[in-house]
Design brief:
- By secondary structure, this protein is α+β, with helices and mostly antiparallel strands.
- About 55% of the residues lie in helices and about 20% in strands.
- It has three helices and four strands; from the N terminus they run H-H-E-E-H-E-E.
- The termini are far apart.
Length: about 200
């Protein structure tokens, strides 16, 4: 009987395996926790870096927005200045328009036509008068059409003058001033400034 070992060696072996298993499980759990913690720290660092980049980009965007607003303001003032320069140029071109118009009318009017009223609205002239014959009025219309100063002559009305015993016709005609004599002024209705 001395060869029989009564010690619970299997139980001791199981206990030892259990301790090894728990130690291995604890070290794996610790390693997993450390890995998760390191990943969390890494992600947090990446988020911090990205937030820093985003803040920098926001600052740069704000600076660029300010520059864009300044550029827009400069562009608006440039356009306003260009409009004023165009207006001044148009006014300089058309400043002698009235003497040129009157001189040209005096040169091309045939005898027998009398002006009673001459109105100018922008570049349109409205002429009312009397004519001793339709032929003289037709000659005046041809002279207006051939003129370098006037364009688009149109007769609005021809009526017999009941007050005249000589058969005089009253007429009303409109014609435009050529753009090289009096350029059309573009006036802005919203701002009240000339364009």
């Amino acid at each position: 009987m001395s060869s029989i070992n009564l010690l619970p060696w299997r139980t001791a072996q199981r206990e030892q395996q259990k301790k090894r298993y728990l130690a291995l499980l604890g070290s794996i759990a610790s390693l997993a926790f450390i890995c998760i913690w390191l990943i969390g720290v890494g992600v947090e660092h990446l988020l911090s870096v990205q937030q820093t980049r985003n803040a920098f980009l926001q600052q740069e965007i704000a600076v660029l927005d300010i520059k864009i607003e300044k550029i827009k303001a400069v562009r608006v003032s440039k356009e306003a200045l260009e409009q004023k320069m165009k207006l001044i140029e148009q006014l300089q071109i058309s400043r002698n328009a009235t003497p040129i118009i009157i001189d040209e009318l005096a040169q091309i009017i045939p005898g027998g036509i009398v002006f009673q009223e001459l109105n100018r609205i922008d570049n349109i002239l409205i002429l009312e008068g009397t004519s001793s014959s339709n032929n003289r009025l037709a000659a005046f219309m041809r002279a207006l059409g051939d003129s370098q100063i006037f364009v688009d002559p149109e007769i609005s009305s021809i009526t017999a003058d009941p007050n005249s015993a000589q058969g005089v016709n009253r007429f009303r005609l409109t014609f435009n001033i050529a753009s090289h004599i009096a350029p059309r002024l573009n006036i802005s209705t919203t701002t009240g400034e000339a364009q």
